[in-house]
Amino acid sequence: MIARLLEERGIRATANRILVAGALARSGRPLSLMELEDMIGSVDKSGIFRCLSVFKEKHLVHAIDDSEGTRYELCLSHGPDSDDDTHVHFYCERCHRTFCLENLHIPPVTLPKGYDARTANYVLKGVCPYCNGYSNA
Amino acid sequence: MIARLLEERGIRATANRILVAGALARSGRPLSLMELEDMIGSVDKSGIFRCLSVFKEKHLVHAIDDSEGTRYELCLSHGPDSDDDTHVHFYCERCHRTFCLENLHIPPVTLPKGYDARTANYVLKGVCPYCNGYSNA
DNA sequence: GTTCTTGCAAAATATTTGCAAGACG
DNA sequence: CGTCTTGCAAATATTTTGCAAGAAC
Question: What per-residue confidence (pLDDT) applies to B85?
Protein backbone atom coordinates (compact mmCIF):
# COMPACT_ATOMS: atom_id res chain seq x y z
CA MET A 1 0.00 0.00 0.00
CA ILE A 2 1.26 3.40 -0.98
CA ALA A 3 0.50 5.19 2.27
CA ARG A 4 2.53 2.71 4.24
CA LEU A 5 5.41 3.02 1.83
CA LEU A 6 5.51 6.75 2.36
CA GLU A 7 5.34 6.47 6.12
CA GLU A 8 8.16 3.96 6.10
CA ARG A 9 10.34 6.56 4.48
CA GLY A 10 9.28 9.17 6.97
CA ILE A 11 7.00 11.00 4.56
CA ARG A 12 3.59 12.02 5.71
CA ALA A 13 1.02 10.33 3.54
CA THR A 14 -1.05 13.21 2.24
CA ALA A 15 -3.57 12.94 -0.55
CA ASN A 16 -1.28 14.43 -3.17
CA ARG A 17 1.66 12.33 -2.22
CA ILE A 18 -0.36 9.18 -2.40
CA LEU A 19 -1.57 10.15 -5.86
CA VAL A 20 1.90 10.97 -7.14
CA ALA A 21 3.59 7.95 -5.66
CA GLY A 22 0.70 5.81 -6.83
CA ALA A 23 1.00 7.07 -10.38
CA LEU A 24 4.70 6.29 -10.38
CA ALA A 25 4.08 2.86 -8.94
CA ARG A 26 1.36 2.00 -11.42
CA SER A 27 3.20 3.25 -14.44
CA GLY A 28 6.23 1.05 -13.90
CA ARG A 29 8.40 3.46 -15.81
CA PRO A 30 9.98 6.80 -15.00
CA LEU A 31 7.68 9.76 -15.53
CA SER A 32 8.37 13.41 -16.13
CA LEU A 33 6.62 16.18 -14.30
CA MET A 34 4.42 16.75 -17.29
CA GLU A 35 3.53 13.11 -17.65
CA LEU A 36 2.51 13.04 -14.02
CA GLU A 37 0.50 16.20 -14.51
CA ASP A 38 -1.39 14.64 -17.40
CA MET A 39 -1.83 11.38 -15.59
CA ILE A 40 -3.17 12.82 -12.36
CA GLY A 41 -5.05 15.87 -13.52
CA SER A 42 -6.44 16.82 -10.16
CA VAL A 43 -3.15 17.98 -8.70
CA ASP A 44 -1.44 21.19 -9.71
CA LYS A 45 2.04 20.91 -11.17
CA SER A 46 3.51 22.82 -8.27
CA GLY A 47 2.02 20.23 -5.96
CA ILE A 48 3.52 17.42 -8.00
CA PHE A 49 6.81 19.23 -8.05
CA ARG A 50 6.80 19.53 -4.29
CA CYS A 51 5.86 15.92 -3.81
CA LEU A 52 8.77 14.91 -5.98
CA SER A 53 11.09 17.18 -4.04
CA VAL A 54 10.17 15.47 -0.81
CA PHE A 55 10.45 12.05 -2.37
CA LYS A 56 13.85 12.83 -3.76
CA GLU A 57 15.06 14.10 -0.43
CA LYS A 58 13.91 10.91 1.23
CA HIS A 59 15.29 8.76 -1.56
CA LEU A 60 11.94 7.35 -2.47
CA VAL A 61 12.44 8.39 -6.06
CA HIS A 62 15.48 9.01 -8.13
CA ALA A 63 15.98 10.96 -11.28
CA ILE A 64 16.73 9.71 -14.78
CA ASP A 65 18.17 12.13 -17.32
CA ASP A 66 16.99 11.44 -20.82
CA SER A 67 16.46 13.42 -24.00
CA GLU A 68 13.38 15.07 -22.60
CA GLY A 69 14.85 16.22 -19.35
CA THR A 70 14.30 14.54 -16.02
CA ARG A 71 12.06 11.65 -15.23
CA TYR A 72 11.33 10.23 -11.81
CA GLU A 73 11.17 6.64 -10.79
CA LEU A 74 10.30 4.99 -7.52
CA CYS A 75 13.22 3.18 -6.05
CA LEU A 76 12.01 0.51 -3.75
CA SER A 77 14.99 -1.75 -3.81
CA HIS A 78 16.83 -0.25 -0.91
CA GLY A 79 16.67 1.50 2.40
CA PRO A 80 15.94 5.14 2.92
CA ASP A 81 19.54 6.35 2.92
CA SER A 82 20.98 5.52 -0.43
CA ASP A 83 20.35 5.56 -4.17
CA ASP A 84 21.50 2.21 -5.33
CA ASP A 85 19.11 1.73 -8.13
CA THR A 86 21.23 1.00 -11.10
CA HIS A 87 19.45 -0.47 -14.06
CA VAL A 88 19.63 0.66 -17.64
CA HIS A 89 16.85 2.75 -19.17
CA PHE A 90 15.63 2.98 -22.70
CA TYR A 91 14.25 6.11 -24.26
CA CYS A 92 12.06 5.61 -27.30
CA GLU A 93 12.57 8.30 -29.88
CA ARG A 94 9.30 7.42 -31.51
CA CYS A 95 6.82 7.47 -28.62
CA HIS A 96 8.97 9.51 -26.24
CA ARG A 97 8.57 7.17 -23.34
CA THR A 98 11.33 5.90 -21.14
CA PHE A 99 11.37 2.28 -20.04
CA CYS A 100 13.15 0.49 -17.25
CA LEU A 101 15.22 -2.47 -18.21
CA GLU A 102 15.03 -3.88 -14.73
CA ASN A 103 17.17 -6.84 -15.45
CA LEU A 104 19.98 -4.94 -17.03
CA HIS A 105 22.28 -3.65 -14.39
CA ILE A 106 24.51 -0.81 -15.37
CA PRO A 107 27.89 -2.32 -16.10
CA PRO A 108 30.41 -0.63 -13.84
CA VAL A 109 33.46 1.11 -15.21
CA THR A 110 36.77 1.83 -13.55
CA LEU A 111 37.17 5.54 -13.13
CA PRO A 112 40.44 7.39 -13.46
CA LYS A 113 41.98 8.50 -10.20
CA GLY A 114 40.31 11.44 -8.55
CA TYR A 115 36.83 10.83 -9.85
CA ASP A 116 34.37 9.96 -7.17
CA ALA A 117 31.06 8.68 -8.52
CA ARG A 118 27.86 8.64 -6.55
CA THR A 119 25.27 7.68 -9.13
CA ALA A 120 25.08 6.48 -12.69
CA ASN A 121 22.72 7.25 -15.54
CA TYR A 122 22.76 4.85 -18.47
CA VAL A 123 20.11 5.52 -21.08
CA LEU A 124 19.90 3.91 -24.47
CA LYS A 125 17.95 5.60 -27.22
CA GLY A 126 16.24 4.12 -30.17
CA VAL A 127 12.94 2.45 -30.89
CA CYS A 128 11.01 0.46 -28.32
CA PRO A 129 9.29 -2.88 -28.90
CA TYR A 130 5.86 -1.28 -29.01
CA CYS A 131 6.81 1.13 -31.74
CA ASN A 132 8.76 -1.58 -33.48
CA GLY A 133 5.80 -3.83 -34.02
CA TYR A 134 6.70 -6.26 -31.23
CA SER A 135 3.37 -5.67 -29.62
CA ASN A 136 3.65 -9.02 -27.94
CA ALA A 137 6.71 -7.86 -26.04
CA MET B 1 41.74 23.93 -38.72
CA ILE B 2 38.12 24.47 -37.80
CA ALA B 3 36.96 25.89 -41.11
CA ARG B 4 38.19 22.86 -42.98
CA LEU B 5 36.52 20.56 -40.51
CA LEU B 6 33.21 22.24 -41.15
CA GLU B 7 33.57 22.11 -44.90
CA GLU B 8 34.45 18.45 -44.74
CA ARG B 9 31.08 17.84 -43.17
CA GLY B 10 29.33 19.93 -45.74
CA ILE B 11 28.80 22.89 -43.45
CA ARG B 12 29.54 26.35 -44.71
CA ALA B 13 32.23 27.84 -42.52
CA THR B 14 30.68 31.07 -41.36
CA ALA B 15 32.09 33.25 -38.60
CA ASN B 16 29.62 32.04 -35.98
CA ARG B 17 30.08 28.42 -36.81
CA ILE B 18 33.81 28.70 -36.57
CA LEU B 19 33.48 30.33 -33.19
CA VAL B 20 31.09 27.73 -31.85
CA ALA B 21 32.97 24.74 -33.21
CA GLY B 22 36.21 26.29 -32.03
CA ALA B 23 34.89 26.76 -28.52
CA LEU B 24 33.80 23.14 -28.41
CA ALA B 25 37.14 22.00 -29.75
CA ARG B 26 39.15 24.06 -27.31
CA SER B 27 37.11 23.14 -24.28
CA GLY B 28 37.59 19.43 -24.71
CA ARG B 29 34.41 18.73 -22.81
CA PRO B 30 30.73 18.91 -23.70
CA LEU B 31 29.23 22.36 -23.30
CA SER B 32 25.69 23.51 -22.82
CA LEU B 33 24.11 26.31 -24.79
CA MET B 34 24.61 28.60 -21.85
CA GLU B 35 28.22 27.66 -21.38
CA LEU B 36 28.84 28.40 -25.02
CA GLU B 37 27.05 31.70 -24.69
CA ASP B 38 29.26 32.71 -21.78
CA MET B 39 32.35 31.49 -23.50
CA ILE B 40 31.79 33.23 -26.79
CA GLY B 41 30.00 36.38 -25.78
CA SER B 42 29.87 37.94 -29.20
CA VAL B 43 27.31 35.53 -30.61
CA ASP B 44 23.68 35.61 -29.65
CA LYS B 45 22.23 32.46 -28.10
CA SER B 46 19.88 31.99 -31.03
CA GLY B 47 22.91 31.99 -33.28
CA ILE B 48 24.63 29.41 -31.15
CA PHE B 49 21.46 27.39 -31.07
CA ARG B 50 21.26 27.40 -34.85
CA CYS B 51 24.90 26.49 -35.22
CA LEU B 52 24.36 23.53 -32.96
CA SER B 53 21.28 22.51 -34.92
CA VAL B 54 23.26 22.40 -38.12
CA PHE B 55 26.13 20.58 -36.46
CA LYS B 56 23.79 18.00 -35.03
CA GLU B 57 22.15 17.44 -38.35
CA LYS B 58 25.53 16.87 -39.95
CA HIS B 59 26.71 14.72 -37.08
CA LEU B 60 29.53 17.02 -36.20
CA VAL B 61 28.33 17.20 -32.62
CA HIS B 62 26.30 14.90 -30.51
CA ALA B 63 24.30 15.51 -27.41
CA ILE B 64 24.95 14.36 -23.86
CA ASP B 65 22.09 14.35 -21.38
CA ASP B 66 23.18 15.19 -17.89
CA SER B 67 21.62 16.69 -14.79
CA GLU B 68 21.68 20.14 -16.30
CA GLY B 69 20.02 19.27 -19.55
CA THR B 70 21.84 18.85 -22.83
CA ARG B 71 25.47 19.41 -23.57
CA TYR B 72 27.13 19.24 -26.96
CA GLU B 73 30.39 17.65 -27.88
CA LEU B 74 32.32 17.53 -31.11
CA CYS B 75 32.54 14.03 -32.45
CA LEU B 76 35.52 13.74 -34.68
CA SER B 77 36.04 10.05 -34.47
CA HIS B 78 33.90 9.07 -37.40
CA GLY B 79 32.52 9.95 -40.74
CA PRO B 80 29.63 12.31 -41.38
CA ASP B 81 26.91 9.69 -41.36
CA SER B 82 26.87 8.17 -37.93
CA ASP B 83 27.06 8.86 -34.24
CA ASP B 84 29.44 6.31 -32.94
CA ASP B 85 30.98 8.26 -30.21
CA THR B 86 30.56 6.16 -27.16
CA HIS B 87 32.64 7.11 -24.20
CA VAL B 88 31.48 7.60 -20.66
CA HIS B 89 30.93 11.10 -19.26
CA PHE B 90 31.24 12.42 -15.76
CA TYR B 91 29.11 15.18 -14.35
CA CYS B 92 30.54 16.97 -11.33
CA GLU B 93 27.87 17.90 -8.82
CA ARG B 94 30.19 20.42 -7.23
CA CYS B 95 31.37 22.52 -10.19
CA HIS B 96 28.60 21.50 -12.58
CA ARG B 97 30.91 20.65 -15.41
CA THR B 98 30.76 17.53 -17.51
CA PHE B 99 33.92 15.72 -18.49
CA CYS B 100 34.71 13.22 -21.17
CA LEU B 101 36.31 10.02 -20.07
CA GLU B 102 37.72 9.39 -23.49
CA ASN B 103 39.30 6.12 -22.64
CA LEU B 104 36.23 4.62 -21.06
CA HIS B 105 34.06 3.11 -23.70
CA ILE B 106 30.47 2.55 -22.76
CA PRO B 107 30.17 -1.10 -21.92
CA PRO B 108 27.52 -2.60 -24.18
CA VAL B 109 24.50 -4.39 -22.81
CA THR B 110 22.33 -7.00 -24.42
CA LEU B 111 18.90 -5.60 -24.96
CA PRO B 112 15.69 -7.59 -24.63
CA LYS B 113 14.06 -8.54 -27.88
CA GLY B 114 12.31 -5.71 -29.67
CA TYR B 115 14.48 -2.90 -28.43
CA ASP B 116 16.48 -1.25 -31.13
CA ALA B 117 19.15 1.09 -29.81
CA ARG B 118 20.76 3.81 -31.84
CA THR B 119 22.79 5.72 -29.29
CA ALA B 120 23.85 5.43 -25.69
CA ASN B 121 24.24 7.96 -22.92
CA TYR B 122 26.27 6.90 -19.91
CA VAL B 123 26.89 9.64 -17.38
CA LEU B 124 28.33 9.17 -13.93
CA LYS B 125 27.72 11.79 -11.29
CA GLY B 126 29.78 12.69 -8.32
CA VAL B 127 32.81 14.82 -7.62
CA CYS B 128 35.51 15.47 -10.16
CA PRO B 129 39.26 15.42 -9.49
CA TYR B 130 39.52 19.20 -9.51
CA CYS B 131 36.86 19.60 -6.86
CA ASN B 132 38.29 16.66 -4.97
CA GLY B 133 41.66 18.20 -4.41
CA TYR B 134 43.43 16.16 -7.09
CA SER B 135 44.52 19.32 -8.80
CA ASN B 136 47.41 17.44 -10.33
CA ALA B 137 44.98 15.22 -12.21
C1' DG C 1 -2.26 27.27 17.80
C1' DT C 2 1.76 25.89 15.39
C1' DT C 3 3.59 23.53 11.71
C1' DC C 4 2.97 21.26 7.33
C1' DT C 5 0.58 21.11 2.85
C1' DT C 6 -1.89 22.89 -1.09
C1' DG C 7 -3.47 25.70 -5.07
C1' DC C 8 -3.11 29.58 -7.63
C1' DA C 9 -0.56 32.95 -9.71
C1' DA C 10 3.55 34.59 -11.03
C1' DA C 11 8.72 34.60 -11.30
C1' DA C 12 12.66 32.53 -13.05
C1' DT C 13 14.94 29.59 -16.62
C1' DA C 14 15.78 27.66 -20.94
C1' DT C 15 14.76 26.67 -25.50
C1' DT C 16 13.00 27.80 -29.93
C1' DT C 17 11.02 30.73 -33.67
C1' DG C 18 9.69 35.07 -36.68
C1' DC C 19 11.38 38.39 -39.15
C1' DA C 20 13.94 41.90 -41.43
C1' DA C 21 18.65 43.12 -42.49
C1' DG C 22 22.99 41.62 -44.09
C1' DA C 23 26.47 38.36 -46.14
C1' DC C 24 27.58 35.10 -49.61
C1' DG C 25 27.90 33.03 -53.92
C1' DC D 1 19.33 38.33 -57.69
C1' DG D 2 18.39 34.36 -54.82
C1' DT D 3 19.67 31.74 -50.94
C1' DC D 4 21.80 31.21 -46.56
C1' DT D 5 22.98 33.36 -42.10
C1' DT D 6 22.56 36.51 -38.24
C1' DG D 7 20.81 39.41 -34.41
C1' DC D 8 17.17 41.02 -31.98
C1' DA D 9 12.95 40.44 -29.96
C1' DA D 10 9.51 37.71 -28.67
C1' DA D 11 6.99 33.22 -28.21
C1' DT D 12 7.24 28.61 -25.92
C1' DA D 13 8.09 25.53 -22.66
C1' DT D 14 9.45 24.17 -18.12
C1' DT D 15 10.76 24.51 -13.52
C1' DT D 16 10.52 26.84 -9.31
C1' DT D 17 8.86 30.13 -5.72
C1' DG D 18 5.57 33.46 -2.89
C1' DC D 19 1.85 33.64 -0.50
C1' DA D 20 -2.46 33.09 1.75
C1' DA D 21 -5.92 29.61 2.83
C1' DG D 22 -6.70 25.11 4.61
C1' DA D 23 -5.54 20.64 6.86
C1' DA D 24 -3.05 17.90 10.21
C1' DC D 25 -1.22 17.13 14.60
Answer: 64
> In this prediction, what percent of chain A has a pLDDT beyond 70?
91
pLDDT in tens, A90-124: 999 999 999 999 889 999 999 999 999 999 999 99
Answer yes or no: is B45 within a domain. yes
Q: Does any domain span residue B137? A: no
Residue spans of chain A under pLDDT 70: 77-85, 135-137
Does B136 fall in a domain?
Answer: no
Q: Which nucleotides of C are covered by protein (CB under 7 A)?
A: 4-10, 14-18, 24-25
Q: A67 CA, C11 C1': separation in Å?
A: 26
pTM of the model: 0.89
CATH number at residue B29: 1.10.10.10
For chain A, how many structural domains are there in total? 1
CA angle A54, B94, A75 (to 5 degrees): 35
Of the candidates B54, B21, B57, which has an alpha carbon nearest to the alpha carbon of residue B40?
B21
Q: The dihedral of CA B33, B39, B41, B47: what is its sign?
A: negative
Q: Could you list the residue range(s) of the whole structural domain that residue A84 is in? A: 2-126
CA of A46 to C1' of C10 (A): 12
Gap from A128 CA to chain B (nearest CA, Å) = 5
Query: Per the domain annotation, does B122 fall within a domain?
Result: yes
Q: What is the mean pLDDT of residues B65-88?
A: 78
Q: How far is CA A84 from CA A56, A61, A87, A108, B24, in A?
A: 13, 11, 9, 13, 33
